[in-house]
Amino acid sequence: MSVMTTDIRTLAEQVRGYMLDMRHELHRFPELSGEEYETSKRIRRELDAMGVEYVQVGDTTGILATIRGGKPGKTILLRADMDALKVTEEASVDFKSENEGVMHACGHDGHMAMLLASIKAMMSIREELCGTVKCLFQPSEENGLGAKWMMDANVMEGVDGVFSEHLWSGIPVGKISVDPGPRLSSCGFFEIHVKGKASHGAMPHEGIDAVVAASAIVMNLQTIVSRKTSPMRNSVITIGCMKAGTQRNIIAEDAVLEGTTRTYQADVRSKFEEQIRHIAETTAETFDATAELIYRDIVAPVINDPVCSERAAKAVEKILSADAVYPFDPLTVAEDVSAYIDAAPEKGCMALVGVGNPDIDAAWAHHNSKFKMDEEGIFNGLLLYLQYTMDWLEEHKG
Fold first, then answer.
1. Domain endpoint, select from 242, 270, 299
2. pLDDT tens track for 74-113
3. What angle do CA 330, 321, 374 make, to 5 degrees?
4. Burial of 47 from C-beta contacts in 10 A (0-12 / 13-18 / 19+)
5. What are the residues whose beta carbons fall under 8 Å from the beta carbon of 76, sequence distance 6 or more?
6. Do 147 and 24 fall into the same domain?
7. At residue 279, what are phi and psi to the nearest 5 degrees?
8. 3-state DSSP helix/strand/coil percent for the chain, to nearest 5?
9. Which residue of 92, 163, 268, 392 lies most exposed, with the fewest beta carbons within 10 A?
10. Are residues 101 and 162 in the same domain?
């Protein structure tokens, strides 16, 4: 099989309108993590109409579709996420969310539409395909649970390689980042419950102030980054929420700190829980308080395999140009696509596809209520899905 760039573009053009129609429809009816019921039904209806083999993944809303090529080869997994965010939309688009207080403010509507269009295009030439393409529509990316659910249901069984894309407003439309190495960070969530002793605010010596102890913990936690981690290694510890007290004139008995950790390095990541617990407990003890840590290691970092990144860069050159390959610094946001990349024998990569365009007010950050995408970038993402997949299958044909 040899599919030329012009053939890829022709394939993509044939499904461009379909892709944008699906994107607009999915955007209008967003659903939160773990609640993608209607979204899942809509995708299944499309797959039924295309005659695509698929299964619902366990008891989740996830869907795994399979395109079996007419010639022997290996199996690649493509993945799109499905969930939206608890955001009230303010973007200037004609297809605004009709589900109050919920919005596709991170591009997942575009991810699903690109994957559906890719399936539609590949089904039209499936007899020419050397190998198998599995397409995963994953729920609950935003809360970091979806990939684990999919992995527990063995979606990676028989999969050799992985490719995925994330539309990104911080990259100009017409540019695509496929850099090798760390791309997105790990993510951990934690809570620290501080226990003191209540007393009248005018007699603080009779109590144990959980607010003071919690405040000291916040400050001391920063020494993990500044004094316990090599300056050659990256590390982020953020306390984003502090809850304490019931009244202005009562010494607080309880305080709760909520935070997150980020890094690209496995050795740094493995120490977070122990380091946070030690500082929380020993700091609380100096105030005669106690501290209990609840830590959840949510997502591993996304590390692009060098071979896969090189293949992706060549694919970008074919569909656009060499200048379209866009060097881009790693991000400290997290993405659970890492679970599939790490599990695949031949690894994989995630491309960040530019959809930013200030001229049409499409330069807002992800998760912002005014988030918007230049749809030419979504078409570029479709082109890349097709080109990368064809190239990968050709390299791994039987």
1. 299
2. 999 999 999 999 999 999 999 999 999 999 999 999 999 9
3. 65
4. buried
5. 131, 132, 133, 134, 159, 160, 161, 162, 163, 389, 392, 393, 396
6. yes
7. -65, -40
8. 40, 30, 35
9. 92
10. yes
